[in-house]
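Per reviewer request, we include the raw input and output of the structure prediction for the construct analysed in the revised manuscript.
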Amino acid sequence: MARQAKIQKDLRLTKLNTNVERQSRRAELKKIISSSDTSVTAEQKMEAAFALQKRPLNESKSRQTNRCPQCGRIHGYMRRFALCRLCVRKFFTQAYLPGVVKSSW
């Protein structure tokens, strides 16, 4: 079981990353910085880069990790089920995940 502080931090990051206004502003700044258009001057690119640096780091989507909602585990996360490998195993032995077949070799 993950520590409660880590789970709460992940919930705060999720709330921060789902804010549409913040993400659109971040995307605008990145678009200005990476623009190859000649109408955007170097000074405007520098201003956009400084504005992007002043924004919170945790606002970036890549800072958020996938976490199992049952136990809070981040390693062994399976996107298909949105659970960690341990919870997937527990749930399919209890027949909560239909269509999953145990394979053996």
